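Good day; I would like, with your permission, to put a structural problem before you. What I wish to show you is a protein chain and, alongside it, a tokenised description of its three-dimensional fold. Here, with my thanks, is the record as I have it:
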Amino acid sequence: MPKITRRRLLLTGAGAVIILGGGWGLTREPKQARAPWRQASDGFGDPRLDVLAYAILAPNPHNMQPWRIRLNGDDSFTVFCDLNRMLPETDPPNRQITIGFGCFLELVRQAAAEKGFSTEIEYFPEGEPFPLLDQRPIAHVKLIEDMPAREPLFSEVLSRHTNRLVFDTAQTPSGDVLAAITSVASPSVFSGASSDSQLVQNLRDLTVDAWRVEWATPRTRRESIEVTRIGKSEINEKPYGLALAGALMDALKTVGLLTTEKMDEAGTTAYQQGQLFYEKACETAMAYAWIKTAANTRRDQLETGRAWVRMQLAATGRNLAFHPLSQALQEFPEMHEHYQRVHTLLGASDGETVQMLVRLGYAGAIPPAPREPLTSKLIEG
């Protein structure tokens, strides 16, 4: 490995490593923060905990991991939302956070089936929370030991990672691959995918424009920056939020080139590369997938999450990189034009809501995102 010096860091300007992290030495990898991915297959001795160990690996906005779980009796648990893990600037109605709970509940079902249990999942047992999520439970889950059919997609759970890398522009997913991905979504949502060159270019332009709005709007940019962890120590200390991992990240932070303050300061390398990295990623989308719902209830949002993680698992099994792009779907005032634009491009009509937009393509492997320990998610009472 080449020696990392201040001169070398200044010459690289942190290009192509901001947001992404790097592979500059395993000794600076946050192994503690990634331990839950290894521990899931070990088990805890309680079927509910064994199931939840996989559920906490679910994709979720900004990796906020807002789930809190109360164990009930011997065979049940209730899922709540940690209201301190919201994204009020980029997700004002808590729609995206709710979708993340749908991903969580789908992995609960799949992991339970793998362990020999079917699940009774009751959404919002005390009522759907609107306009915002509140203290009421998201779901109540009961495990029933009856040896249901195992879920084929479950084999990809530990390999599923959101890939934000630049994609290979020489490879386009085939129509058969796209059809296989959309086919696993539930009939309660409308799923679609396309590699049509004109639609792909229109969506590339849209997602770049939407990202620029989010990054240029101080309060939405800062919401992301405030939950960004830079380097091994920070990530292990707070294993939620957005992680910039690797020896190079640590070194850039040490010499002052990469700090959260610099990321928020226009004109700095950290600010510019934070914007450019995501733009370059958006510009290399080779296909898109999306999910629409007829309405926009909390139940619709949970069903979207369940479909999303199923589609991502199907993509993982076909070595296809899967990167949700949420910016154009965010519901803050400055994004309104692009919100309307994405609904038009994807043919949403008669009150339909575009719930998810995903960039697809082929890219290199990435490590798993940090996760908080399962034990930290359990609550009393």
Q: What stands out?
A: The longest strand covers residues 353-361. The CA atoms of residues 103 and 305 lie 4 Å apart. The mean pLDDT is 93.
